[in-house]
Design brief:
Number of helices: 0
Largest sheet: 7 strands, mixed
Number of strands: 11
Order of helices and strands: EEEEEEEEEEE
Helix content: under 10%
Shape: globular
Strand content: over 45%
Radius of gyration: 13 Å
Length: about 120
């Protein structure tokens, strides 16, 4: 059974930082591209960042470029999202997801972790 478990969310002031973690189990981690998504209140879920299995190919939503960094530790089956210079508009539930390297869509999702940025 595949499980993705996020942690690290919380309440932070604007300009602050948080690091989210997502621990994966039940899958061969290096066979999956990992991604972070978020859903803000009243809005659709949106892509935040993605990282290929080797960690050498990453991409970001324009809204977080230069502020967020995605990384992974394949030995720990964990993907991270370092979030710096947080803004109130970053407030959302953040989800990690896994997509097969050969696939075109994310098939496994975590339960989400709340990030709240106060102004």
């Amino acid at each position: 059974q595949v499980q993705l478990v996020e942690s690290g969310g919380g309440l932070v002031q604007a300009g602050g930082s948080l690091r989210l973690s997502c621990a994966a189990s039940g899958l061969t981690f290096t066979m999956y591209t990992m991604g972070w998504f978020r859903r803000a209140p009243g809005k659709d879920r949106e892509f935040v960042a993605g990282i290929r299995w080797s960690g050498g190919n990453v991409n970001y939503a324009d809204s977080v470029k230069g502020r967020f960094t995605i990384s992974r530790d394949n030995a720990k089956n964990t993907v991270y999202l370092q979030m710096n210079s947080l803004r109130p508009e970053d407030t959302a539930v953040y989800y990690c997801a896994a997509a097969r390297n050969s696939g075109t869509s994310y098939e496994y999702w975590g339960q989400g972790t709340q990030v709240t940025v106060s102004s």
